[in-house]
């Protein structure tokens, strides 16, 4: 396959990633994200996804880094994803080299890009944060359980619901998703961080051009009200991850501040995924939400012997800077 060499920078040679780089990428990524690495599942779809650029850095033919940029907000913003450096090369500025090079490359391809956004799971420290504007923080709840425990776990949660009447959340069709997503009052109702909509680590401005990006994710959307939603919850279909020799990962995003609705949304989404037969084997569940909800949901999920609360990820940090 013809490879596109983009150039050299600070001792590294930069290339556009190709499908047959997969084995090198996965070898370099071993152990990432406590076994919950999404890249083995998504790498090949990234190769054909519109408006996505994946860049590899090599030193003497050895793969040392990868970064992926996704063009969003109708061409005004790039979102950084998948940044990783080979363990033997960490701490030597490689991440900075590949990002600076890719920043310049993106600006050549898309001169209209003005902003760069990323969502981090860890605080990078004051020296790096000074380069960015912090747009918000979200709490993360991480659970691990076996599929055969999910039915009893759902029953356990239903018994713990604070409300004697379980509010029903409403699924949205495509037309309703568009109306809710573009509603100018939505940021105030559901307390969007940085007035941006974050779905599965991708921050998006609420504009029509981003709806196609969301549509590609095959999201299940639930709201408390069609007329004036104050709480949204959504999940993407579970996907395989390396954890525990081969598991599934279920990502759930919650937008809103109501504790009871958050509990009901978790129950509703688990029931929906379970009913579709999407959960099997070992399942890692990540729930992303307002920081104010995290302790409530953590307490809500505790007390079932088949569920383990993990501590590998507790927050999302939403960052932005000019490109």
UniProtKB/TrEMBL annotation:
<feature type="domain" description="Histidine N-acetyltransferase C-terminal">
    <location>
        <begin position="167"/>
        <end position="289"/>
    </location>
</feature>
<dbReference type="Pfam" id="PF24066">
    <property type="entry name" value="Hisat_C"/>
</dbReference>
<protein>
    <submittedName>
        <fullName>N-acetyltransferase 16, like</fullName>
    </submittedName>
</protein>
<dbReference type="InterPro" id="IPR016181">
    <property type="entry name" value="Acyl_CoA_acyltransferase"/>
</dbReference>
<dbReference type="InterPro" id="IPR056483">
    <property type="entry name" value="Hisat_C"/>
</dbReference>
């Amino acid at each position: 396959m013809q490879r596109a060499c983009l150039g050299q920078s600070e001792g590294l040679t930069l290339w556009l990633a190709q499908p047959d780089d997969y084995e090198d990428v996965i070898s370099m990524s071993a152990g990432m994200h406590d076994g919950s690495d999404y890249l083995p599942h998504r790498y090949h779809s990234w190769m054909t996804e519109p408006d996505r650029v994946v860049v590899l850095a090599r030193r003497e033919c050895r793969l040392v880094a990868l970064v992926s940029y996704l063009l969003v907000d109708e061409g005004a913003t790039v979102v950084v994803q998948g940044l990783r450096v080979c363990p033997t090369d960490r701490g030597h500025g490689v991440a900075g080299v590949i990002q600076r090079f890719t920043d310049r490359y993106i600006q050549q391809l898309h001169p209209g890009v003005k902003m760069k956004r990323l969502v981090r799971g860890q605080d990078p420290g004051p020296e790096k944060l000074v380069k960015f504007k912090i747009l918000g923080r979200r709490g993360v709840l991480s659970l691990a359980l076996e599929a055969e425990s999910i039915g009893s776990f759902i029953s356990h949660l239903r018994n713990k619901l604070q409300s004697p009447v379980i509010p029903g959340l409403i699924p949205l069709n495509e037309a309703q998703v568009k109306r809710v997503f573009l509603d100018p009052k939505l940021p105030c109702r559901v307390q969007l961080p940085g007035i941006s909509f974050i779905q599965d680590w991708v921050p998006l401005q609420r504009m029509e051009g981003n709806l196609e990006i969301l549509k590609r994710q095959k999201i299940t959307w639930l709201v408390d009200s069609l007329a004036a939603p104050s709480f949204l919850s959504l999940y993407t279909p579970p996907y395989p991850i390396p954890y525990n020799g081969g598991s599934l990962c279920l990502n759930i995003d919650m937008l809103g501040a109501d504790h009871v609705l958050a509990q009901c949304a978790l129950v509703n989404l688990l029931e929906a995924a379970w009913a579709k037969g999407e959960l099997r084997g070992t399942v890692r569940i990540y729930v992303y939400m307002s920081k104010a909800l995290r302790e409530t949901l953590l307490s809500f999920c505790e007390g079932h012997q088949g569920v383990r609360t993990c501590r590998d990820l507790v927050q999302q940090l939403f960052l932005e800077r000019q490109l």
